[in-house]
Write a structure and sequence with these properties.
Blueprint: E1 9-13, H1 17-29, E2 33-37, H2 40-46, E3 55-59, H3 67-76, E4 83-87, H4 92-100, E5 105-108, H5 113-144, H6 149-159, H7 164-171, H8 175-189, H9 194-204
Parallel strand pairs: 1-2, 1-3, 3-4, 4-5
Length: 210
């Protein structure tokens, strides 16, 4: 299901209260839900699960913890929330550094309202796609975790296209035993063919069949 604007939560982090309010007003006028924070520390305290955010609009320079330092902290936590950095004059070099570390976009003050709306729109779309992809990956991994170690070995060889006889030869088990394991693999994962099994395994781990 594609999330609506009401389902999306954007976080604005900027130490300039007036500027922060103007950003919130603009984004809310587009129908998005917005939470604002006066500092990176406030954001971390108020948002125990940052990965649930659709997008982060973040000032690159702030007292105490900077926007870049917050980005690094989120990266260390394995959080890939899309970030749109707001930069002042002379901060382009920092913004490029942020982009190299995965930021979605950056805007240099002063910028037009539409530029922010477009940048946030792209970030929100990217965030939704990333969460959907992560959910599919987690679902695939959960299905494959139902398999026993031997069933996983059989599943990998079947997904590579080997017939039962060759799977048995590879694992030093009988063809009949392979057939039983193969049936259990299909039953536990809910797939109906070797091709579907291959897609499931690659969804869980792109390197699964290397």
């Amino acid at each position: 299901m594609t999330p609506t604007a009401e389902d999306i939560l954007i976080h604005v982090v900027d130490d300039d209260a007036a500027f922060r309010r103007s950003l919130v007003f603009l984004l809310e006028s587009m129908g998005w839900r917005v939470a604002s924070h006066a500092s990176a520390e406030d954001f971390l305290v108020a948002t125990p699960e940052p990965s649930a955010a659709a997008c982060l609009v973040l000032d690159i320079r702030m007292p105490m913890m900077s926007g870049l330092e917050l980005q690094q902290q989120l990266h260390q936590r394995g959080c890939s929330v899309p970030i749109v950095f707001i930069t002042g004059h002379g901060d382009v070099e920092l913004a490029v550094q942020a982009m190299k570390h995965g930021a979605c976009d950056f805007l240099e003050k002063p910028f037009k309202d539409q530029a922010l709306i477009d940048a946030v729109g792209r970030a929100v779309k990217l965030g939704c796609e990333t969460r959907a992809r992560t959910a599919r990956c987690d679902e695939a991994r959960a299905l494959l975790e139902r398999l026993s170690p031997r069933e996983r070995e059989v599943a990998r060889l079947v997904a590579l296209g080997l017939p039962n006889k060759l799977v048995g030869r590879e694992l030093d088990i009988s063809e009949k035993t392979v057939h039983v394991h193969r049936h259990h693999v299909m039953e536990k994962t809910g797939v109906g063919s070797a091709a579907e099994l291959a897609r499931l395994m690659l969804r869980a781990d792109p390197a699964a069949l290397d």
